[in-house]
TrEMBL record:
<dbReference type="Pfam" id="PF00403">
    <property type="entry name" value="HMA"/>
</dbReference>
<feature type="domain" description="HMA">
    <location>
        <begin position="23"/>
        <end position="86"/>
    </location>
</feature>
<dbReference type="InterPro" id="IPR036163">
    <property type="entry name" value="HMA_dom_sf"/>
</dbReference>
<keyword id="KW-0479">Metal-binding</keyword>
<dbReference type="InterPro" id="IPR006121">
    <property type="entry name" value="HMA_dom"/>
</dbReference>
<protein>
    <recommendedName>
        <fullName>HMA domain-containing protein</fullName>
    </recommendedName>
</protein>
<dbReference type="GO" id="GO:0046872">
    <property type="term" value="F:metal ion binding"/>
</dbReference>
Length: 145
């Protein structure tokens, strides 16, 4: 009898010690053309464990999922509908100085495409070429200087 009771107590402690998932808002861009597409996506995402709400804006082709879910799980489930799906690629265009905007004609009004800044270092030979391009020692240098 003592072994069974200790197993039950141990199992309840194990459940309590498990980490709780955090509340997330996942935004997706899903290609939807009709009411049937919208209904299919809504029903599929609503069945995911942990989803609290699913909001769909068909004009922007935007799906917002709120709940205790992971973004990759929601993305995979949305892709299982056979629709073209990607994480929401746009950010509001509010501050010019944060990052250079990348214009996209398909972006909703007031939004630009999200781009992660990438710094590309020039090759060693290219640096030397650029340094000697306007040099006085170079006979083929720019004549405007």
């Amino acid at each position: 009898m003592g072994g069974v009771a200790s197993e039950l107590v141990g199992a309840s402690r194990e459940r309590q010690s498990r980490k709780r998932k955090q509340f997330h808002t996942v935004e997706l861009k899903v290609r939807m053309d009709c009411d049937g597409c919208e209904l299919k996506v809504r029903n599929t995402l609503a069945r995911v464990r942990g989803v609290e709400s699913v909001e769909i804006n068909r004009k922007q082709q935007k799906v917002t999922v709120k709940g205790f879910v992971e973004a990759q799980r929601v993305l995979r489930r949305a892709q299982s509908t056979g629709k073209r799906v990607e994480l929401w690629p746009y950010v509001p265009y509010t501050n010019l100085y944060v990052a250079p905007p990348v214009y996209d004609k398909r972006a909703p009004p007031g939004h630009v495409r999200r781009v992660d800044a990438q710094i590309v270092a020039p090759a060693a030979g290219q640096e030397e070429h650029l340094a000697t391009l306007f040099s006085d020692d170079n006979p083929n240098a720019c004549s405007l200087m």
